[in-house]
Design a protein that fits this description.
The chain contains nine helices and ten strands. It is an alpha/beta fold. It has a six-stranded parallel beta sheet, with helices on one face. Helix 5 runs parallel beside helix 9 (227-239). The radius of gyration is 20 Å and the shape is elongated.
Length: 240
Amino acid sequence: MPLTKAEIARLRGLRLKKNREASATFIVEGSKVVNELIAAGHKFESIYATSEWPADGTLEVEQIDEIEMAKISHFPTPSAVLAVGQISRSELDPQELDTGFSLALDGIQDPGNVGTLLRIADWFGFDRVLLSPDCADLFSQKVINASMGSFARIRVITTELAPILSRATVTVLGSDLDGEPLHEVTRPEAAVVVIGSEGRGISRDVADTLTSRVTIPRLGKAESLNAAVAAGIVCAHLRG
């Protein structure tokens, strides 16, 4: 059955955060990322695919043609599959932070950076990622794609950071230009690593919760490091 105009409009509308929030659904598009979410057991409301996508016989898939896919695709060049995922949000018990490693993102608004930071947390075996409410939306297509599947594997909680971090009993370590040189830092058994935005840095209320500050020594003349690059270096030192 051809897609209705209302269905097309609804699927295209999920490009906007307000519509994702209202419907508790999000779009994920592309064979690799859809397959990653399927493998992780993520729940889908619906899956639309052309004949080019080799669907798993256990999945309920609505077959559409390339013309219809172009109407609902969020990409300039449509892919062979587009799925509507269900949004579910994790709640955080503050005591969780006292075990393992957490990555806290404070005001990271670039979706590519947020997705890459999820990959970094996944790579280094972090237990969870915290997003401040002013970070890029976790369920945007750009964040999901940049995470390269880590979106489906890493536990992510969106929460106000300062009240949570102020109750942590482990090291709350922030990346800061005025901090202690990273190579001089003793690796803790557990910690929260805080990464601020490139433009603003760590916000004042979150900075007040830090128990340690580290900097990556600069040997050249670059003004700064990309937030994800800095996080990768810090996480490699702590978990290497």
